[in-house]
Structure formats: C-alpha cells, structure tokens
Amino acid sequence: MLHSHLTTLNAVSLVLNTFKAEGLSSEALLAGSGISAADLSRADTRITTNQEMLVCANAVALRRDIGLELGRRMHVSSYGMLGYALLTSATLGDALRLALHYPALLGTLFELSLEEEDERIWLTAGDYRENPALAPFNVEFCLVSMKVTCEDLLGHPLPLLGARFEHPAPDYQAHYTERFDCPLQFDAVSNAFAFDKHWLEQPLPLADAITHQAMAERCRKQNTEFTGRQAWLGRIRQLLAAQLNAAPGLEGLAEQMNCSARTLRRHLKDLGCSYQELLDELRFEQAKRMLCEDQLPIYRIAEALGFSETASFRHAFVRWSGVAPSQFRPHR
C-alpha cells in the first residue's frame, strides 16, 4: 500500500515528549523519517502516515508497550479544531459520530465504527492496511486514545464492559488491564471496546450549540483541504509508481501534473517531503513486495525499479531497511 494519506504532527510530537523525560534525543526517534526540527516548530506542517509510522517504529524498538502509554496521553485537546467540536457536542453519541465522520482530522489509520450488540456499543477499529508488524502498537494507541477521548468528553471515567484484540496476548498483558479495566480477549475477530449504549445519550458538560456549529463548520472546511491535498499527493504517487523503471525527474513529473517544476517543488515542501523522498519511498515499497512475492533475481528487481546497477540498488535498500535485499527475502 502506498502511504498517500497526510496527517498532523500530533502523534510525532507526543512520541518525542514521552521519551524526552527519559533523556532520549529527538534525533534517534526521527531517524529515517525525513522530519526535521524545523518541521516541528511549524503548527501547520503536514506529514505522510509513512513518516509518522517510521517515528513510531523507532519508538516501538525502544519500548514495546509504548502504544498503551501514547494512547493514555492523547487527550481530546490533541485534535485541534476537531477536539473543540467534540467537546461542545450535545451528547457523547453526537461527539463520537462527528469524530468518525472526519477520520482525516482524527488522524486514525483505522476505519472506526459504532456497532450495537444487544445493550452494548462496540467502538471498533478495523480495515488496518499499514505495516503488519506495527498492528498491535497502532491498535493499542487507537483504542486507548479513543477511551481517553470519551472520558475527556464526559468529564469522568467511561465504564467498559469488555475489550478485544485481533493480536495474541503480549508479554506485557498486565499493562492492558491498567488501561482498560475490563474483561480482555486476545486472538479475537476484531479490535474494539464495549460500553453500555445508554452512554451515547449522555449530555456532555461542555456542550454549547452555537460554538459547536461554528467549530463543526471549520472542521468541514479543514477536512476538505486535507482530503484535497491527499488526492493531489495520491495523484503524484500514482504517476511515479507507474514509472519506477524510468522515473521522469522533477521537471518531467511537473509537466505531467500540468504545473511548473518550481510550483511542484514548493507544494512538496509544504507537504513535508521532496521528489527524491517520494521516489525512494515508492521504490522501497515495491522492492519489499517483489522480494516477498516474486522469485526474480536481485538484478531484475533493480532494473524494474530504475537502477542502472545492482550495486546501487543494494546500497539504497540497505539505507532504507538496514539489511541487504538478499537478507530481507529469506528473513521475511
């Protein structure tokens, strides 16, 4: 899958702040992501979900249960304008339905849904399509943060009736009990937590109809901008992905996008990336697929990705993954 979705720096900032207390430098966590200190100082910086996941992978390598901790720290105020719209909603159900209507603003990697089962409501996180190795981390982060958001909205804890997870129980399972405080099920059919459905009708203490209407309208406009930029970036990736064996270069890509090279470069910079970074990411994704799914020799894969020499491909793959292509294939 190509990581064409854009997101904010909220999760990345949360990772950095969480490890800051332990004396770990941001450079170690940002390694390989293409995110700089200057990017962190700009409130309007947009990054790709791939960049976000690279930072999260660095965090998981240092602490396997970090998803539970990050989720605990992800309060409703972290969602900016959407957070204010949620806080001023009339009921918890209204707030959750609004949040699920704007997944781009929520920054989730899942398709979130509210599923009724008798007197229970399951808040379910499904349709995950990112790095499988990071699935448990992302599930932990998502569900704990959504529970925290519900409690922020209500102003008190939300009693859970159960929680279930598709992945096997990890060796830090005891930490799950601290975060969910309800019956747990692993190796389940879905990722979700349940609460009594009467909570959906619970009035929120900070509800304000006028403020909510204004914030909801601003969310609608922000979402339009977000999805428009995602579509634009998606088009660029689609064009590049079809030409990996003979990449068009910045000027050639700009011509295909019906704009000048200067305009394309500026837009890519605003999105927090460059032409070469996009090309490398697409080549890396395709290389992994071909190494895992095909039986082509390494030199043929190098040719398909536009490398004039096999050695150049090997050096690039080591830079991207930390291992040589020949090591990656049997390991996978």
UniProtKB/TrEMBL annotation:
One of its GO terms (molecular function) is transcription cis-regulatory region binding. It comes from the Bacteria. Residues 234-331 form the HTH araC/xylS-type domain. Keywords: DNA-binding, Transcription, Transcription regulation. GO terms for cellular component: cytosol. Coiled coil: none annotated. This is AraC family transcriptional regulator. Transmembrane segments: none annotated. SMART domains: HTH_ARAC. InterPro entries: AraC-type_N, Homeodomain-like_sf, HTH_AraC.
